[in-house]
Design brief:
Blueprint lengths: L7 E7 L2 E8 L6 E6 L9 H12 L3 E5 L4 H10 L6 H17 L7 E7 L1 H12 L4 E7 L17 E6 L3 H13 L4 E6 L11 H17 L4
Helix pairs in contact: 1-6, 3-4
Length: 221
């Protein structure tokens, strides 16, 4: 019989705000993947929850967390300005990472980041700031170019996944790939657009992410 792993609602202090997240830890997990959302998305995003479900089934813990408070999300819906405040998002993600290291249930888990859209840039900056804590990064339809000069400081294995019909983002990811340090790979999924809504596209994203994280989060660094 399959084990059902329930979401645990957590409140995480990051700087001067409290962030809400959904934490799942399967038995004998070696690593945890933190989801950094972007462009108006959050922890209830069906696409990221789908990927998280796949990761949990392979034995990885996941934390889907809102990097903006409810009040900030309301402001962002009107102005769309906070989703592009990459430094703010990166600082929040860093605070979440520090919380994981001090939380008894997650302190022993290797940490990876899964970033989508502008959240990918935040993940890259936060990883560059914590080279000994964060072990691997996956970007889905991300804007790694927005991480700017931090790209050169990233040493963690980084996988960039882009839809084949997402022309502008493909070029931005190719340029960012040249700047990234360490192990890196760009995978383009044929026929997929920015949101990977086409049949089978998100399944490919989840499979690629699962393989990457299991390779770089399990065992010794």
């Amino acid at each position: 019989m399959a084990v059902i792993i329930q979401d645990r609602l957590v409140n995480v202090r990051a700087g001067n705000v409290q962030l809400q997240g959904n934490l799942r830890i399967p038995p004998a997990a070696d690593g945890i993947v933190v989801f950094a959302h972007g462009s108006g998305s959050g922890r209830l995003s069906p696409r990221n929850r789908f990927v998280a479900d796949v990761l949990v089934k392979t034995g990885l813990a996941t934390l889907l967390i809102d990097l903006l408070t409810q009040e900030e999300e309301m402001i962002d819906l009107e102005t769309a300005e906070l989703r592009f405040d990459i430094r703010l998002l990166a600082e929040r993600l860093g605070g979440v990472t520090d919380w994981l290291a001090g939380e008894p249930s997650t302190a022993g888990l290797a940490i990876g980041y899964f970033g989508a859209s502008t959240g990918a840039a935040a993940a890259l900056i936060a990883a560059a700031d914590r080279p000994k804590t964060v072990r691997a990064i996956v970007s889905r339809g991300g804007r790694p170019d927005l991480a700017a000069s931090a790209l050169r400081r990233v040493r963690q294995p980084t996988l960039l996944i882009v839809g084949g019909d997402d022309d502008v983002v493909i070029q931005l990811n190719r340029q960012a790939l040249q700047e990234l340090g360490g192990t890196k790979q760009l995978v383009i999924i044929p026929g997929a657009t920015h949101l990977f809504e086409e049949p089978g596209a998100l399944e490919q994203v989840a499979a690629l992410a699962s393989e990457w994280f299991r390779r770089y989060l399990e065992g010794e660094p």
